[in-house]
Design a protein that fits this description.
Structural class: mainly alpha
Number of helices: 2
Radius of gyration: 17 Å
Oligomer: single chain
Helix content: over 70%
Distance between the termini: 15 Å
Number of strands: 0
Strand content: under 5%
Order of helices and strands: HH
Shape: rod-shaped
Largest sheet: none
């Protein structure tokens, strides 16, 4: 496998991971909004907030890696 194909495969995998992370974030935020609407601001709600922040950090790291791999393709 050539270096270009290897980088493209990694890039596609990172994009899939980012899409899944966005889906998880949307589901989590939807659950948090539902809990607030029902007046259930408890430990589970705050755990969801922390989890959402962690998912956002993961998405940002994935975006940085995608950007790096895209620049690598441009350099080849």
């Amino acid at each position: 496998m050539s270096k270009l194909d290897e980088i493209k495969e990694i890039l596609n995998t990172l994009r899939v991971a980012m899409s899944i992370s966005f889906g998880i974030l949307v589901v989590t935020i939807t659950g948090l909004v539902k809990r607030v609407d029902e007046g259930n601001v408890d430990l589970l709600f705050w755990a969801g907030i922390v989890f959402s922040i962690l998912i956002i950090i993961v998405i940002l790291k994935l975006l940085i890696k995608i950007s790096d791999k895209t620049k690598q393709i441009g350099g080849l």
